[in-house]
Design a protein that fits this description.
globular; 33% helix; FAD/NAD(P)-binding domain; alpha+beta; 3 domains; 5-stranded parallel beta sheet; 503 residues; 7-stranded mixed beta sheet; single chain
Length: 503
Amino acid sequence: MKKNKAVIVGAGLSGLTMGALLAKDGWDVTVYDHNDQVGGVCSLTTQNGFSFEQGPLELCDLLPTDPAGKVLAELGIELDLKRAERGIEMPDYALWRPDEYEGPYWRRDYLKKLFPEEAKGIDEYYRFYDNMMELRYRLGELGEGMSPKRVLSAALAFSKVAKYSRMNAQELVEHFFTTPKLHALFTGIFCDYCASPEEVWGLGIAFGNYETGFDKRIPLEKDGKPYLPGFVLVQGGVQQIPESLAKCIADHGGKICLNTDVSRVVVKHGKAKGVVLEDGTEVSADLVIGSGGGKDFFYDLVGRENLTKKYCEILDTFRPMEAVFMVHLGVDFDPMQYLKAPLCYYYGCYDIPEAVERMREGYYHEGKDGFLLFVPSEHAPDFAPEGYHCVTIYTVAPDTLKDADWDDKKDEYAEKLIDLASEKLPGLKDHIVEKKVLTALDYRAMTHMKKSSFGGTVPIWHQKNPPHETPIKNLWFVGQQSENGGGVAAVINGAYQTYLKLK
């Protein structure tokens, strides 16, 4: 019997997840990617015996009981996961987990000691947080199957937070707290998504500040059932996820063609018929899956003329994230002797909306507004030769600089980040044995995008992102700039939901 044929453009997590699901289901799958390795921004950067992940990849919603974890299990993929946590240092106070476990609300209690005048608002925030965790759990139950009892439980859970549901994130923190020092603590995470708290749905505050992300000792179960989300690191590196998906495709007869560009999607009479490769080879298919940048895929490979006005309006108006600036270092000392966690956030300002606006205008803060330190060799010792370690200094950054060019400024900016990191890692400069600097230009090349090449879409309230189902029959779109947004678990789940619609 002839197999249905699927062509997938892009070997990032979303394309590989789709390929693995379809191949396992009996499809003849071919995945094309212009890179020389699978994984996109989940692939490794290597240099002279050192390996680096593309940023601080502490992942949520990937445990075996989470939806993305279940998708991987369905594909026969088992990961060695380690619960992870992070710490935060603000300009004039810090929140590091205590040496002795003080329970799931130690951050609440510590904040009340630091800001006694805010005690009432802090208590109200944590009641809101608990109610949001209940709502998350109840919505998860609905995902396992609808019943009148589950629908009622979810409705009751939402009723506890309904009064906050018309607020944006900035309005919500201003409702709870009077000091900008607490506003920034709970909205700073949105800088990771290049989002101003003034444009993010207020209820999202709880999902951006899971207490379990700051102390891995907090139990995730309630009444013997999985209840709270937990953050994890993939032992040995996150690249094991795309590599395992690629192996699943190959094990089921599929092919992955690296160093191969797709130049056009063949559309005839409103249907996708296959793709044309850069060398002119035409590959026919019953199904085409696109991934990567929304504008890049649809306008460069599909053609605006083949899309509806409504779909073009979405492509023209959705906002992708900006970029990142990363300095990867190989060092000859153990950085964990100075750090309180393998992932440390250091904020340099309290005005988050202003910081985001400046970045969008093309002004890079040079680390002054904040930076992260991440030690990937802590969960992946093989990333560094014996006796050495890896350190990544990371910031969000404009995709395009206002008055400069990334190639001209990257070395200067890297030194400024190293100077800032040296305040946390004494003597850092004397222990650097390897350095690799990555800018927006590198990530554009890696993701085959013209701009906004790292991360997904800005989580703007009411923004409509490019849907999985396109106006063209047999053409579907997945990935970080699709309706599921960015994040490892999000793109895996989005691909799975798209696969279910195809069945």
